[in-house]
Amino acid sequence: MFKMKRICHLIFRLLFLLDGGVWSLRNLSISVPRAVLAGEGQSAVLECSYDLEGAPLYSIRWYKSETEFYRYVPREMPPSMVFPLPGASVDLAQSDRNQVRIVNMNRRLSGDYQCEVSADAPLFHTDIRSAPLTVVDPPFRAPHISISRDSYARGDVLRANCSVDEAYPAPNITWIIDDHKVAETISWRASDIDFKERAAFSQLEITILEAEHYRMGITYTSSNLNKVYHDHYIYDKDMNKEDREILRYTVVPPTSGQFSLSCVATIYDIYARKSEPLYIKEDAPLPASVTGEDSSGVSAVCNAALIVLCACASLLPSL
Length: 319
Ligand SMILES: *[C@@H]1O[C@H](CO)[C@@H](O)[C@H](O)[C@H]1NC(C)=O
Ligand SMILES: *[C@@H]1O[C@H](CO)[C@@H](O)[C@H](O)[C@H]1NC(C)=O
Ligand SMILES: *[C@@H]1O[C@H](CO)[C@@H](O)[C@H](O)[C@H]1NC(C)=O
Fold this sequence. Notes:
The chain is an alpha+beta fold and about 325 residues long. It has helices at about 1-20, 210-215, 230-235, 295-315; strands at about 25-30, 35, 40-50, 55-65, 65-70, 80, 90, 100-105, 110-120, 125-135, 145, 150, 155-165, 170-175, 180-190, 200-210, 225-230, 245-250, 260-265, 270-275, 280.
């Protein structure tokens, strides 16, 4: 086995020398959009660039997950040849030695695409490059938030759910508080064999700080974005996993007595949709909040004022 390898290596070296030390296929690269929308009339242009250094081209072959769907052989007439792709077709008028255009995209066309270039005789140098493409079926509606309470008191814990309709692939969900991204649920798939649409879901637990804490200088921050990775295969079967997938964030009570909460569903860079924002108000915004005192402190002050009033009232007749 080892000997065979050495012999192959020698032959390889010899061919290289015969070739004048020049490979006649260089800089092969593939350019495929990371994601495109599904639909009739939706298309994707996949490009393949290479440098044959003057050598003639023998063939270009395009594969979708190892199955050839387009071939370009300049020596043949016509040079283009297509093979069936599930549900879609190749636009012959816009496909040639440098690109292939696929029309009527559907999500079954998601997967790895390969471009294989072969130089002509005598050496037939061949090389191949691969890149993934995802055909996206976006959710029908905007994401939706439900929340345990729509007002807060200091020290409260609010629980919010963001849910997104079925889509392919399942979207990522980002939580936004007052224009700051605060947490994210990343959808990832263990395997990509079925092309099923899936709903996405994210749970956020918001802790509202007590007055004493934020006096110590804890400030609003989004520097370390809290992330969870949500595997849909495991999630579907094992509901106990849910607890580990709860995102947590701590909010400093805003001086305005209100903050907004929304979530955004995104699929790569071609789909992003935001929920209606929820405005969450402090339960009983009191003027005392300016001094940083909580409501119990305020009522104590009121009671004290009341006692003084009563004392004055009881003193009045004797005056
Ligand atoms: C092609 O490859 C050579 C080296 O092999 C490099 O110097 C050159 O910049 C490349 N050209 C392009 C367009 O990438
Ligand atoms: C969020 O979803 C979980 C799990 O489905 C549910 O138990 C909880 O009641 C929901 N909370 C809200 C505020 O909708
Ligand atoms: C979700 O986010 C992760 C990490 O940023 C990214 O790699 C992935 O492509 C995103 N998925 C989608 C469907 O946008």
